[in-house]
TrEMBL record:
Keyword GTP-binding appears in the UniProt entry: no
Protein name: PocR ligand-binding domain-containing protein
Tagged with keyword Transcription: yes
Originating species: Brotonthovivens ammoniilytica
Keywords recorded for this protein, A-Z: DNA-binding, Transcription, Transcription regulation
Entry superkingdom: Bacteria
SUPFAM superfamilies assigned: Homeodomain-like
Length: 361
């Protein structure tokens, strides 16, 4: 099944990409358009030359332009770099491939310029040869005049601009690809029917959505290392259950008393008294104890840095996390891990020695 991030309109945020494309066209003096793998435009043409605009208004000639875009993109992806070629009107065009995991999904097409040194044109491939296109040009004096208005660049300048666009496109696509991998992973790990905290993701900004998904994935990874009896808590007082669910499902957050009271639709003071009665200690002590317990398991079972564990458990400052851990366990997280590993090594050695003695008997 094809992943959603193989769709170019999912990789590029077109509302943001179009203004950037327009600005690049203005600065470089190139016409730029972005197409999918079939050569079909997914953006408006930026800086389109009047000659090319007129040509693309003709249904028959427009098909040849689209064929050039498609073929140029495919040639670019074969070489893995910008492909500079001649269109069916001997105009310079550049195809910059967009690929995800070696799968070609589209291209940034730039150009609509002539070469100031036409001898260089002999070294370039004319990607589509069309006598019909040339005949159409020869019949129109207006088109001939527009053709001569197309700007001319040296081949070296064209190559430099192609290289710059290639680097920029790769950077933007890599950034967007990371975002879409996260989105796709989220859909796999957290089916919509099972998620109670992301039912309104379309109503929030894309940045907020990605941040929420990263948090959810962090919680999922953390949960894999924790004892099953600490993954959830069942409250005798059912009115408090939303608070416990929220605490255990959001291990990477600094959950507050007020926040949990609101979730349970209770006043802060009443919630605090009820919570203490339920667990035998106040809210702050209970949450701190949980965080320390989770931290101990992560220190024992993973090689995550202390700072990473601190962040994954919702602490803004590693220093505060270390201070709280030491207050509870009378030892720093780093020393706790060290002693755990030493204890494991000694136990493993004794186990091996015992097994050896048994086998000798």
């Amino acid at each position: 099944m094809e992943h959603s991030f193989f769709q170019i309109d999912r990789i590029l945020n077109l509302e943001q990409w179009q203004p950037l494309q327009d600005a690049l066209s203005d600065v470089l003096g190139l016409a730029i358009i972005t197409v999918n793998y079939k050569g079909v435009p997914i953006t408006e043409h930026s800086g389109c030359q009047e000659f090319c605009r007129r040509v693309r208004e003709n249904p028959e000639l427009s098909k040849r332009c689209q064929k050039c875009d498609s073929r140029g993109g495919l040639e670019a992806v074969r070489s893995g770099e910008p492909y500079i070629y001649l269109c069916h009107y001997h105009i310079i065009d550049i195809a910059i491939p967009i690929s995800i995991d070696d799968k070609y999904i589209g291209a940034v097409m730039a150009g609509q310029v002539r070469l100031s040194n036409m001898q260089k044109a002999d070294d370039l491939e004319q990607i589509v040869d069309s006598p019909t296109s040339i005949a159409f040009l020869e019949r129109s004096k207006e088109l001939q005049d527009l053709y001569l208005q197309i700007p001319a660049y040296s081949y070296e300048d064209v190559k430099r601009m192609a290289g710059m666009l290639h680097l920029l496109s790769n950077y933007i696509v890599d950034e967007a690809k990371g975002k879409n991998y996260i989105l796709d992973m989220y859909k796999r790990v957290f089916p919509a029917a099972q998620s109670q905290y992301f039912q309104n993701t379309e109503a929030v900004s894309e940045t907020a959505q990605i941040h929420s998904i990263k948090e959810a994935l962090t919680n999922a990874i953390t949960d894999t290392y924790l004892s099953s009896d600490q993954v959830i808590y069942s409250s005798k007082n059912r009115s408090l259950q939303p608070a416990f669910d929220y605490i255990f499902l959001n291990k990477n957050k600094a959950v507050s008393l007020d926040e949990c009271a609101k979730l349970c639709h209770l006043s802060t003071s009443y919630f605090g008294r009820s919570f203490t009665k339920e667990v035998g200690e106040n809210f702050t002590s209970f949450v701190s104890g949980l965080k320390v317990s989770w931290a101990k398991q992560l220190l024992e079972k993973t090689d995550l840095p202390v700072a990473q564990i601190s962040e994954d458990l919702g602490f803004n400052e590693p220093g505060y996390f270390i201070k709280m851990f030491k207050k509870s366990e009378h030892i720093t997280p780093g020393l706790y891990r060290k002693y755990c590993k030493e204890r494991t090594s000694i136990t493993g050695f004794l186990d091996s020695s015992d097994n050896y003695k048994i086998s000798k008997k």
